[in-house]
Amino acid sequence: MRKWLLSLFTVLSSLLFACSRATPISPGELLQLTPTLQPIFPTPTYPPTLQPILTNTPEETSPIQITKVPRGKLVVSTTDDGLFMVNPDGSDQKLLIPAPVGLGTLSPGLNKIAYEIRGEIHVLDIQTSEDLVIFSPGFYPHWSPDGSRIGFNCNMDFLAKICVINADRTDLRIFGENNENQRLNFDNWSQDGNIITFTSYSFPPSGGRGIGTIQILNLNTNEISSVLDETMLDKIQAIGNSSLSFDNSQIYFLGTQNEIFSVFSINLQTQDIQLIENENYDLSNPVWSPDGQFFFVHGETPLLFTSTGEFLYGLDIPGGLVTSWVIP
Protein backbone atom coordinates (compact mmCIF):
# COMPACT_ATOMS: atom_id res chain seq x y z
CA MET A 1 0.00 0.00 0.00
CA ARG A 2 2.79 2.44 0.88
CA LYS A 3 4.50 1.76 -2.46
CA TRP A 4 1.20 2.36 -4.29
CA LEU A 5 0.66 5.69 -2.55
CA LEU A 6 4.21 6.74 -3.33
CA SER A 7 3.74 5.90 -6.99
CA LEU A 8 0.50 7.88 -7.11
CA PHE A 9 2.17 10.91 -5.52
CA THR A 10 5.01 10.71 -8.07
CA VAL A 11 2.55 10.65 -10.99
CA LEU A 12 0.53 13.60 -9.65
CA SER A 13 3.69 15.62 -9.02
CA SER A 14 4.82 15.03 -12.60
CA LEU A 15 1.49 16.16 -13.97
CA LEU A 16 1.51 19.34 -11.89
CA PHE A 17 5.05 20.15 -12.98
CA ALA A 18 4.14 19.61 -16.63
CA CYS A 19 1.16 21.93 -16.32
CA SER A 20 3.26 24.62 -14.71
CA ARG A 21 5.67 24.47 -17.69
CA ALA A 22 2.93 24.44 -20.37
CA THR A 23 3.16 27.06 -23.15
CA PRO A 24 0.83 29.99 -22.27
CA ILE A 25 -1.99 31.03 -24.64
CA SER A 26 -0.95 33.93 -26.85
CA PRO A 27 -3.00 37.16 -26.90
CA GLY A 28 -4.08 36.35 -30.46
CA GLU A 29 -5.33 32.90 -29.48
CA LEU A 30 -7.08 34.40 -26.48
CA LEU A 31 -8.91 36.87 -28.71
CA GLN A 32 -10.03 33.97 -30.91
CA LEU A 33 -11.49 32.25 -27.87
CA THR A 34 -13.13 35.40 -26.45
CA PRO A 35 -16.29 36.62 -28.22
CA THR A 36 -16.36 40.30 -29.28
CA LEU A 37 -19.65 41.75 -28.10
CA GLN A 38 -19.94 45.18 -29.80
CA PRO A 39 -17.34 45.64 -32.55
CA ILE A 40 -19.12 48.47 -34.40
CA PHE A 41 -17.68 51.50 -32.59
CA PRO A 42 -14.71 51.92 -30.25
CA THR A 43 -15.20 52.95 -26.65
CA PRO A 44 -15.62 56.74 -26.82
CA THR A 45 -13.50 59.31 -25.07
CA TYR A 46 -15.84 62.02 -23.86
CA PRO A 47 -14.95 65.68 -24.45
CA PRO A 48 -14.57 68.03 -21.48
CA THR A 49 -17.70 68.91 -19.53
CA LEU A 50 -19.63 71.43 -21.58
CA GLN A 51 -19.93 74.77 -19.85
CA PRO A 52 -21.24 78.07 -21.16
CA ILE A 53 -18.60 80.78 -21.28
CA LEU A 54 -20.15 84.15 -20.47
CA THR A 55 -18.58 87.15 -22.10
CA ASN A 56 -18.67 90.90 -21.57
CA THR A 57 -19.83 93.62 -23.90
CA PRO A 58 -17.19 96.24 -24.79
CA GLU A 59 -19.04 98.83 -22.70
CA GLU A 60 -19.63 96.69 -19.62
CA THR A 61 -17.62 94.69 -17.17
CA SER A 62 -20.47 92.44 -15.99
CA PRO A 63 -21.66 89.38 -17.95
CA ILE A 64 -24.44 89.82 -20.48
CA GLN A 65 -27.88 89.33 -18.97
CA ILE A 66 -29.76 86.80 -21.11
CA THR A 67 -33.42 87.83 -21.08
CA LYS A 68 -34.59 84.98 -23.33
CA VAL A 69 -33.20 81.54 -22.57
CA PRO A 70 -32.48 79.34 -25.61
CA ARG A 71 -34.63 76.20 -25.61
CA GLY A 72 -34.48 72.80 -27.25
CA LYS A 73 -31.71 70.35 -28.06
CA LEU A 74 -28.55 70.60 -30.12
CA VAL A 75 -26.51 68.06 -31.99
CA VAL A 76 -22.80 68.79 -31.64
CA SER A 77 -20.22 67.02 -33.78
CA THR A 78 -16.63 66.51 -32.67
CA THR A 79 -13.92 65.13 -34.90
CA ASP A 80 -12.60 62.67 -32.35
CA ASP A 81 -15.67 61.65 -30.37
CA GLY A 82 -18.72 61.62 -32.63
CA LEU A 83 -22.18 63.16 -32.24
CA PHE A 84 -23.64 64.40 -28.95
CA MET A 85 -27.08 65.73 -28.02
CA VAL A 86 -26.88 68.61 -25.53
CA ASN A 87 -28.94 71.50 -24.21
CA PRO A 88 -28.19 74.94 -25.70
CA ASP A 89 -26.29 75.85 -22.51
CA GLY A 90 -24.07 72.78 -22.94
CA SER A 91 -25.63 70.73 -20.13
CA ASP A 92 -27.15 67.22 -20.20
CA GLN A 93 -24.91 65.78 -22.88
CA LYS A 94 -25.82 62.42 -24.37
CA LEU A 95 -23.62 60.46 -26.75
CA LEU A 96 -25.57 59.44 -29.85
CA ILE A 97 -22.92 58.03 -32.19
CA PRO A 98 -19.49 57.32 -30.66
CA ALA A 99 -17.54 57.68 -33.89
CA PRO A 100 -16.65 60.55 -36.22
CA VAL A 101 -19.34 60.82 -38.90
CA GLY A 102 -20.60 63.54 -41.23
CA LEU A 103 -23.36 66.01 -40.52
CA GLY A 104 -26.14 64.74 -38.22
CA THR A 105 -29.57 66.24 -37.55
CA LEU A 106 -32.22 65.39 -34.95
CA SER A 107 -35.80 64.49 -35.75
CA PRO A 108 -38.40 66.81 -34.16
CA GLY A 109 -39.39 64.07 -31.72
CA LEU A 110 -35.75 63.72 -30.54
CA ASN A 111 -36.04 59.97 -31.12
CA LYS A 112 -34.06 59.61 -34.36
CA ILE A 113 -30.98 61.10 -35.94
CA ALA A 114 -30.15 61.29 -39.64
CA TYR A 115 -26.45 61.27 -40.37
CA GLU A 116 -23.95 60.73 -43.16
CA ILE A 117 -21.10 58.26 -43.22
CA ARG A 118 -19.02 57.21 -46.23
CA GLY A 119 -21.46 58.86 -48.62
CA GLU A 120 -24.52 57.07 -47.19
CA ILE A 121 -27.54 58.65 -45.48
CA HIS A 122 -28.49 56.70 -42.35
CA VAL A 123 -31.30 57.05 -39.83
CA LEU A 124 -30.57 55.81 -36.30
CA ASP A 125 -33.36 55.15 -33.81
CA ILE A 126 -31.95 56.51 -30.54
CA GLN A 127 -34.10 54.26 -28.34
CA THR A 128 -33.73 50.94 -30.18
CA SER A 129 -30.34 51.54 -31.90
CA GLU A 130 -31.89 50.35 -35.17
CA ASP A 131 -29.86 51.82 -38.04
CA LEU A 132 -31.24 52.06 -41.60
CA VAL A 133 -29.54 53.19 -44.78
CA ILE A 134 -31.91 55.67 -46.42
CA PHE A 135 -30.01 56.59 -49.57
CA SER A 136 -26.61 56.36 -51.24
CA PRO A 137 -24.72 58.33 -52.40
CA GLY A 138 -25.97 61.24 -50.31
CA PHE A 139 -24.62 63.99 -48.06
CA TYR A 140 -25.76 66.54 -45.44
CA PRO A 141 -29.16 65.15 -44.38
CA HIS A 142 -31.76 67.50 -42.82
CA TRP A 143 -35.05 66.47 -41.20
CA SER A 144 -38.18 68.30 -42.27
CA PRO A 145 -39.85 70.22 -39.39
CA ASP A 146 -42.66 67.62 -39.12
CA GLY A 147 -40.22 64.68 -39.16
CA SER A 148 -41.80 63.01 -42.18
CA ARG A 149 -39.06 63.70 -44.77
CA ILE A 150 -35.31 64.09 -45.12
CA GLY A 151 -33.65 66.49 -47.56
CA PHE A 152 -30.02 66.14 -48.62
CA ASN A 153 -27.40 66.50 -51.33
CA CYS A 154 -27.46 63.59 -53.75
CA ASN A 155 -25.27 62.45 -56.60
CA MET A 156 -27.25 61.14 -59.56
CA ASP A 157 -25.16 59.87 -62.47
CA PHE A 158 -22.27 62.05 -61.29
CA LEU A 159 -24.50 65.15 -61.27
CA ALA A 160 -25.07 67.06 -58.00
CA LYS A 161 -28.77 67.37 -57.12
CA ILE A 162 -31.12 68.15 -54.23
CA CYS A 163 -33.09 65.13 -53.03
CA VAL A 164 -36.09 64.75 -50.72
CA ILE A 165 -37.29 61.37 -49.48
CA ASN A 166 -39.82 60.16 -46.95
CA ALA A 167 -38.35 58.89 -43.69
CA ASP A 168 -39.67 55.41 -44.56
CA ARG A 169 -37.55 55.46 -47.76
CA THR A 170 -40.47 56.06 -50.14
CA ASP A 171 -41.27 58.84 -52.64
CA LEU A 172 -37.80 60.00 -53.69
CA ARG A 173 -37.91 63.42 -55.39
CA ILE A 174 -34.93 64.84 -57.29
CA PHE A 175 -34.38 68.50 -58.16
CA GLY A 176 -31.74 70.35 -60.16
CA GLU A 177 -30.37 70.78 -63.66
CA ASN A 178 -28.19 68.33 -65.56
CA ASN A 179 -25.11 70.52 -65.40
CA GLU A 180 -21.74 68.94 -64.73
CA ASN A 181 -20.27 72.34 -63.80
CA GLN A 182 -22.86 72.97 -61.11
CA ARG A 183 -22.99 71.78 -57.50
CA LEU A 184 -26.07 72.11 -55.29
CA ASN A 185 -25.84 72.30 -51.49
CA PHE A 186 -28.94 71.62 -49.38
CA ASP A 187 -29.16 74.38 -46.77
CA ASN A 188 -32.43 74.37 -44.78
CA TRP A 189 -36.19 73.81 -44.57
CA SER A 190 -38.77 76.51 -43.93
CA GLN A 191 -40.66 76.01 -40.67
CA ASP A 192 -43.81 74.92 -42.53
CA GLY A 193 -41.85 72.35 -44.54
CA ASN A 194 -43.01 73.74 -47.91
CA ILE A 195 -39.80 75.51 -48.96
CA ILE A 196 -36.17 74.46 -49.15
CA THR A 197 -33.29 76.91 -49.37
CA PHE A 198 -30.14 75.76 -51.12
CA THR A 199 -27.02 77.19 -52.71
CA SER A 200 -26.08 76.52 -56.31
CA TYR A 201 -22.37 76.82 -57.12
CA SER A 202 -21.32 77.30 -60.75
CA PHE A 203 -17.73 76.31 -61.50
CA PRO A 204 -15.76 77.54 -64.51
CA PRO A 205 -14.96 74.71 -66.97
CA SER A 206 -11.28 75.62 -66.64
CA GLY A 207 -11.42 75.25 -62.85
CA GLY A 208 -11.48 77.69 -59.95
CA ARG A 209 -13.82 78.79 -57.18
CA GLY A 210 -17.52 78.21 -57.57
CA ILE A 211 -19.80 81.27 -57.71
CA GLY A 212 -22.78 80.93 -55.38
CA THR A 213 -26.46 81.65 -55.98
CA ILE A 214 -28.93 81.25 -53.12
CA GLN A 215 -32.16 79.69 -54.37
CA ILE A 216 -35.48 78.53 -52.95
CA LEU A 217 -37.42 75.44 -53.95
CA ASN A 218 -41.20 75.40 -53.50
CA LEU A 219 -42.12 71.77 -52.87
CA ASN A 220 -45.80 72.41 -53.62
CA THR A 221 -45.14 73.70 -57.15
CA ASN A 222 -41.62 72.27 -57.80
CA GLU A 223 -40.57 75.78 -58.82
CA ILE A 224 -37.01 77.00 -58.20
CA SER A 225 -36.29 80.72 -57.99
CA SER A 226 -33.08 82.65 -57.33
CA VAL A 227 -32.86 85.00 -54.35
CA LEU A 228 -29.29 86.23 -54.35
CA ASP A 229 -26.60 85.97 -57.03
CA GLU A 230 -23.01 86.47 -55.91
CA THR A 231 -22.11 88.13 -59.21
CA MET A 232 -24.55 90.95 -58.40
CA LEU A 233 -22.93 91.73 -55.04
CA ASP A 234 -20.27 94.37 -54.63
CA LYS A 235 -18.39 93.44 -51.46
CA ILE A 236 -19.79 90.05 -50.38
CA GLN A 237 -18.37 86.79 -51.73
CA ALA A 238 -18.52 83.04 -51.08
CA ILE A 239 -22.19 83.08 -50.08
CA GLY A 240 -24.00 79.99 -48.76
CA ASN A 241 -25.48 78.34 -45.65
CA SER A 242 -28.85 79.99 -46.24
CA SER A 243 -31.82 79.75 -43.87
CA LEU A 244 -35.33 81.21 -43.97
CA SER A 245 -36.43 83.34 -41.04
CA PHE A 246 -39.24 82.10 -38.81
CA ASP A 247 -41.85 84.18 -40.71
CA ASN A 248 -40.33 83.53 -44.18
CA SER A 249 -39.70 87.26 -44.66
CA GLN A 250 -35.89 87.08 -44.70
CA ILE A 251 -33.10 84.73 -45.63
CA TYR A 252 -30.02 84.57 -43.45
CA PHE A 253 -26.80 83.56 -45.16
CA LEU A 254 -23.05 83.34 -44.71
CA GLY A 255 -20.56 85.27 -46.82
CA THR A 256 -17.16 86.89 -46.75
CA GLN A 257 -16.65 90.62 -46.40
CA ASN A 258 -13.11 91.98 -46.16
CA GLU A 259 -11.95 88.32 -46.16
CA ILE A 260 -13.87 87.54 -42.95
CA PHE A 261 -16.85 85.18 -42.90
CA SER A 262 -19.91 86.94 -41.52
CA VAL A 263 -23.68 86.40 -41.17
CA PHE A 264 -26.03 88.55 -43.27
CA SER A 265 -29.75 88.80 -43.92
CA ILE A 266 -31.67 89.75 -47.05
CA ASN A 267 -35.24 91.02 -46.94
CA LEU A 268 -37.22 89.07 -49.55
CA GLN A 269 -39.49 92.02 -50.33
CA THR A 270 -37.12 94.98 -50.34
CA GLN A 271 -33.92 93.03 -51.21
CA ASP A 272 -32.09 95.03 -48.53
CA ILE A 273 -29.00 93.26 -47.17
CA GLN A 274 -27.85 93.76 -43.58
CA LEU A 275 -24.79 92.60 -41.70
CA ILE A 276 -25.96 90.76 -38.58
CA GLU A 277 -22.56 89.81 -37.25
CA ASN A 278 -19.44 90.07 -37.45
CA GLU A 279 -16.85 92.46 -36.24
CA ASN A 280 -14.39 90.20 -34.46
CA TYR A 281 -15.02 86.56 -35.41
CA ASP A 282 -14.36 84.43 -38.48
CA LEU A 283 -17.58 82.42 -38.53
CA SER A 284 -18.92 79.37 -40.35
CA ASN A 285 -21.86 76.94 -40.35
CA PRO A 286 -24.66 79.01 -38.78
CA VAL A 287 -27.48 76.93 -37.26
CA TRP A 288 -30.64 78.83 -36.27
CA SER A 289 -33.04 78.03 -33.46
CA PRO A 290 -36.46 77.02 -34.83
CA ASP A 291 -38.07 80.07 -33.18
CA GLY A 292 -35.63 82.36 -35.02
CA GLN A 293 -34.33 84.08 -31.88
CA PHE A 294 -30.78 82.70 -31.76
CA PHE A 295 -28.11 81.09 -33.87
CA PHE A 296 -24.95 79.10 -33.19
CA VAL A 297 -21.93 79.49 -35.42
CA HIS A 298 -18.61 77.74 -35.49
CA GLY A 299 -15.60 79.74 -34.39
CA GLU A 300 -12.84 78.03 -32.46
CA THR A 301 -15.77 76.71 -30.42
CA PRO A 302 -19.58 76.97 -30.87
CA LEU A 303 -20.68 80.59 -30.34
CA LEU A 304 -24.24 81.70 -29.54
CA PHE A 305 -25.70 84.95 -30.90
CA THR A 306 -29.13 86.55 -30.84
CA SER A 307 -30.91 87.15 -34.14
CA THR A 308 -29.75 90.78 -33.96
CA GLY A 309 -26.09 89.80 -33.67
CA GLU A 310 -25.51 90.13 -29.92
CA PHE A 311 -22.90 87.63 -28.73
CA LEU A 312 -24.13 85.71 -25.66
CA TYR A 313 -21.68 82.90 -24.90
CA GLY A 314 -19.64 80.04 -26.27
CA LEU A 315 -19.62 76.36 -25.41
CA ASP A 316 -16.44 74.83 -24.06
CA ILE A 317 -16.15 72.29 -26.88
CA PRO A 318 -12.96 73.10 -28.79
CA GLY A 319 -13.50 72.19 -32.41
CA GLY A 320 -17.15 71.32 -31.75
CA LEU A 321 -19.64 72.02 -34.54
CA VAL A 322 -23.37 72.49 -33.93
CA THR A 323 -25.16 70.70 -36.77
CA SER A 324 -28.80 70.70 -35.62
CA TRP A 325 -31.19 72.60 -33.33
CA VAL A 326 -34.63 71.22 -32.47
CA ILE A 327 -37.35 72.52 -30.17
CA PRO A 328 -39.72 69.57 -29.58
Binned strand content? over 45%
Shape: globular
Low-confidence spans: pLDDT under 50, at least 5 residues? Answer: 1-65
Number of strands: 25
Helicity, in percent? under 10%
User: Average pLDDT value?
Assistant: 80
**End-to-end CA span:** 85 Å
Strand order of the largest sheet: 1-24-23-22-21
Biggest beta sheet attributes: 5 strands, antiparallel
Classification by helices and strands? mainly beta
Radius of gyration: 27 Å
Instruction: Compute the number of helices.
Output: 2
Order of helices and strands: HHEEEEEEEEEEEEEEEEEEEEEEEEE
Description:
The chain has 328 residues and is mostly beta strands. 8% of the residues lie in helices and 45% in strands. It has 2 helices and 25 strands. The chain is globular. It starts with a helix and ends with a strand.
Summary keywords:
4-stranded antiparallel beta sheet, single chain, 5-stranded antiparallel beta sheet, 328 residues, mainly beta, 45% strand
Secondary structure elements and pairings:
Elements: H1 2-20, H2 27-33, E1 52-54, E2 73-78, E3 82-86, E4 94-97, E5 104-106, E6 112-117, E7 120-125, E8 131-135, E9 138-143, E10 149-156, E11 159-166, E12 173-175, E13 182-189, E14 195-202, E15 211-218, E16 223-229, E17 237-244, E18 250-257, E19 260-267, E20 273-277, E21 284-288, E22 294-298, E23 302-306, E24 311-315, E25 321-326
Antiparallel strand pairs: 1-24, 2-3, 2-25, 3-4, 5-6, 6-7, 7-8, 9-10, 10-11, 11-12, 13-14, 14-15, 15-16, 17-18, 18-19, 19-20, 21-22, 22-23, 23-24
